[in-house]
Write a structure and sequence with these properties.
Layout: E1 10-14, E2 22-24, E3 28-37, E4 60-69, H1 74-85, E5 89-94, E6 100-114, E7 120-128, E8 133-134
Antiparallel strand pairs: 1-2, 1-5, 3-4, 4-7, 5-6, 6-7, 6-8
């Protein structure tokens, strides 16, 4: 596996049209992805003292966080609207290798900050709702 550039790890939001297309949320400097799952323990006295887990069971989730510089792009405006209304929307994560992950996410946090003589920046956190597919 070759090393991939962090700048090629992009967070995109769907445009709401049919067919759905995705636009990059402009101004991102960092993006992070976390895949998590909850195990279902099926250990019994027949397990020989070893823990056993049920394959395919439990709750799986994808969490995304990103930070960047506010540019007022269409994607940023849509994200802000989703944060204010609590609406689920379609998002895509794309990687330098061409792999993509798509799913519905809820904006769980959107923070803005800025210095007197500096740019306005933001951080965003998203949580998946439903299946996230890897393409």
């Amino acid at each position: 596996m070759s090393v991939e550039k962090g700048s090629a790890f992009l967070l995109k939001i769907g445009n709401g049209d049919a067919p759905l297309t995705y636009v990059t949320i402009a101004g991102l400097r960092t993006t992070q992805l976390q895949l998590s799952g909850e195990a279902v323990n099926i250990t019994s006295k027949d397990s020989g003292g070893w823990r056993e887990l049920l394959s395919g069971a439990g709750v799986r989730a994808v969490s995304v966080s990103a930070a960047g510089i506010f540019t007022g792009s269409v994607g940023e405006t849509r994200v802000r609207g989703n944060a204010l209304t609590g609406v689920l929307d379609d998002y895509e994560l794309s990687f330098e290798s061409g792999e993509r992950m798509r799913g519905r996410f809820l904006v769980t946090r959107l923070d803005y900050a800025g210095d007197y003589n500096g740019e306005r920046n933001y951080t965003i956190s998203l949580e998946s709702s439903g299946a996230v597919e890897s393409l």
